[in-house]
Amino acid sequence: METNNQPLHKLNIFSFKGVQMRTFHITWLMFFVCFFGWFGLAPLMPTIRAEMGLSKAQIGNIIIASVSATIIARLVIGKLCDIFGPRKTAVWLLILGSLPVFLVGLAHSYETFILFRLAIGVIGASFVITQYHTSIMFAPNIKGTANAVTGGWGNLGGGVTNMVMPVIFAAIVGFGYTDAQAWRYAMIFPGLMMLITAFIYWKYTKDTPKGNFDEIGHSKAEAKKTDWKVLADWRVWALTLAYAMCFGMEITFDNVASLHFVDSFGLSQSSAGFWAGAFGFMNLFARALGGIVSDKIGGKFGMKGKGTLLALMLLLEGCGVLLFAHAGSFVFAIISMVSFALFLKMANGATYGIVPFINDKNVGLISGVVGAGGNIGGMAFGFLFKSETITYVQAFEYIGYTIIAVSVIIFITKFIGSTSKEKVEDLALNMSK
């Protein structure tokens, strides 16, 4: 019988009862809010580009900066969760991360703006906290689903940001402020949201179902010992590569979608933000769907089934990106965008449906490494959009072919020696001890 201080074996998304479900909702909300801070500037880039006279190369550098700092941050944040617990780690990240969000409005040149954009990128490490905290609160049979839902609803912040920030910007302009003032004042909104969320996280969550790390005798000294041998496991790097293709493409698209729609189809900043937001809104269900299907297939076909699902989602994502690249009309561009968004976000969920089963003693480290892979992908794709000789259309085409190639690598990767359902159940039993 499941007690109140044990990981939950069922996910009732409409429940707020117990520390497990409170943490479930607060941790996805935290990632959602962090997305506002992380990508709040993206839908305002047409205005910022005009004000600062930014070149295509400079915009590319800004895109790279927005995701590159997150790489190191995600590697570090996983270990901090192991040592100090996800609760303290989340609160400090929210508080410190809000500072560059508030202060980016002081930037009046390309150089200062890109430095603030680099600092803001650290906020993206919040994803690792969300996955880490959810993994602790739920039993192995439901981890993939729970991780996918919290990750997806958090990623939903990217879509809402693209829709809401242009509205906030327009409202500020409506009060008589100039465009140059409005985008700066608009960033105060996500900064305040981050501080409020820090208070909620501190007051209403616990590190584990049994209590905070310092209440249950958690050994910091033991947690500081890192089993680096886990990084010799090819499966970790295969998942890192997969996540580079799905989440890396997601954050890249969040960064460039508004500019692409403005430049290629002549949309206004508000309209471009709306349609870019539609891409992010797929996270409302698509990432969760990937995690749910991963758990179901894992229960029937073992880890081989989970790996095959991930490979298939990446293959379909890559094909969808190619269709988007060659869309000859705005309507077909939206249809193909929604198509590849579905498979991309399902791939996100399917990736983290595998991560907790790779090594149960190093969940924080592996979550951080794989999560960093997403940002490495985003950074690498950013160089394509920076190039003066490659158009945005060509960049999407190259990315599509790369994703398809990686899907083949994932398909031939053996995520576990045994492919049986019993092996997955053995892993689940070990993780629950």
Automatic annotation (TrEMBL):
Keyword Zinc applies: no
Domain of life: Bacteria
Membrane topology of this protein: Multi-pass membrane protein
Domain named Major facilitator superfamily (MFS) profile: residues: 23-420
Subcellular location: Membrane
Ranges that cross the membrane: 26-45, 57-77, 89-108, 114-132, 153-177, 183-202, 234-253, 273-293, 314-343, 363-386, 398-417
Keywords per UniProt: Membrane, Nitrate assimilation, Transmembrane, Transmembrane helix
Family stated for the protein in its record: Belongs to the major facilitator superfamily. Nitrate/nitrite porter (TC 2.A.1.8) family.
Full protein name: MFS transporter
Native organism: Pedobacter alpinus
